[in-house]
UniProtKB/TrEMBL annotation:
GO molecular function list: 3-oxoacyl-[acyl-carrier-protein] reductase (NADPH) activity
Keywords noted in UniProt: Oxidoreductase
E.C. numbers: 1.1.1.100
Protein name (record): 3-oxoacyl-ACP reductase
Matches recorded under PANTHER family: 3-OXOACYL-[ACYL-CARRIER-PROTEIN] REDUCTASE [NADH] (PTHR42760:SF78), SHORT-CHAIN DEHYDROGENASES/REDUCTASES FAMILY MEMBER (PTHR42760)
Protein family membership: Belongs to the short-chain dehydrogenases/reductases (SDR) family.
Residue intervals of the Ketoreductase domain: 219-397
Domain of life: Bacteria
Organism: Lipingzhangella rawalii
Amino acid sequence: MVDRYQRFAATGFGGFVTKRLGLPRPPHLYRHSPENPRSPGPVLLATTEDATVTGALHAILAEGGTPVHTCTSPDPTPDEPQEPGSLILDATGITETTQLCTLHRLLGPRVRSLRAGGRVLVVGTPATDCRTLGAAVAQRSLEGFTRALAKELRMGATVNLIYVPAQAPTTAASTVRFLVSDRSAYVSGQTLHLSETTQSTNTEPPTPPIAEVAPLADTVAVVTGAARGIGATIAETAARDGAQVLCIDVPHAGAHLADTATRVGGQALELDITEDDAPQRIVAAARHHFGRLDVMVHNAGITRDKTLARMSAQQWDAVLSVNLLAAQRITERLVDPTDPVLGPGGRVVCTSSISGIAGNAGQTNYSTSKAGLIGLVTALAPTAAERGATVNAIAPGFIETPMTEAMPLLVREAGRRMNSLRQGGTPQDVAEAVCYLADPGTGGVNGQVLRVCGQSLIGA
C-alpha cells in the first residue's frame, strides 16, 4: 500500500511544510535486502567494569564479521567510530540505583552520532539473577529508559532491551543479530526476557542454525493463512531463510494458495483449520511431504467487526473459532505426549495483535481471540521448554495491507502516525519477526510476545 503522506513529507517542499506546521515526518526505514544487506556495524559496545556479558556480546558480533569497538569512558575517544551503525550498552554491571547515571554518561554523548536507521540495544540482567534489592530496582528501570529513548530518536533509529542470563549469554546470539539488523526495522521500544535453552533429558539437543544467511535450513515450516497478504509473505521469507514450507489456507483461496506454494517451492494444503480433523490432517501432510514438522506458524485470522451490542453470535463464534480455538487445538496436537510432533528445536509462533493487548472498539471478538493467543503462549511455554521447543507470539500494530487500505481515511492516518516511527509497518516486518522466533538459534526466547508496531502509542 502507498503512504502518500510519507512520500509528500520526504520531498523538499513537503519536508518544509510539515516542519513549519509541526506535523509528523515519517523517516525512511532501512529494511533488510538479501541482495544488498547493510552491515549492523561498526558497533560501539559501551560497558562498565562489572558488566557480565560484554565478552559474549563481542564474540556474537565479531563472529559475523561486524567490527566492534568497546568503550568504558563517558567521553568519546578519537578512535571511536564517527557514525556507528549500532550502540550496545552492557548494563548488567548496574547493581545499584545510584549507578543508573551510567545510562546517561555512556549513551548520552553518543546517540547523536548514530547513523540513519541505526540501532540501540541495551542488555540487562534478568530479575532471577538479581541478588539485591538495588540490583532488581535498577535493572527494572532499564525498561522505562529504553521506551523513552526510543521515542526520542529520529531518522528511523530503534531502541530495544534484552535481559540475558549471565550463565548462558550465548542464547542471545540470534536475538542480538536480529535487533541490530535491518530485519527489525519496525521493532522498537520492546523488551525480551531470555532464558537458558531448556532441553528434554530424553532427547538429543537441537541442531544449531546452519548459517546466519540461511537460519531455517533443514527445517519444515507450516504456515496457516498463507494464500495472500501477511501469510504469503511469511511463507516466502521462511523459504528465503532455507525452510521447506507447507502452505495452508481455505479451499476457496486455493488458486492463490497454489501460487504461494509454487513461489516458495513448497506444498499446498487446502484446509479449513476449524474442521475437527484439521490438526490430524496438518500433521499427516507435513509428515507425508517432508517427514516431520519443525515450525508451526499460526497466522490465519479473520475479523467480523461490530460493537458488542450489535454483534451476532455467528460473528463472535467465527472469529473465536478461526483465530483462537483452531490454533489451540492444532498446538495441543503438536505437543500431545502420546505422539509428540514437535521435538527439540521445535517452534510455535502465534500471530496475535496489539488489539489483544490494548483492546479496540468494535473488536471485542477479535481482541478476545488475540489476547487468548497470548494466553496460549504463556500456558504452553513450560511444556515446550521440557522438550527443548519454544512457543512465542508476535503482536503486529498497524500493517499496510488491503484490509487497512479499506479503512476510513482519518482512521487509517491515525493508525499510521500513532507510533514512534510515524508510519505503518509492512507484511515483511511481520515475516522477519516470525522467522527470527522460528530460528533454531532462538531457543532462549520462550513464552514471549514481541510487538511489531513501531512502538505504537496504543497499549504502550
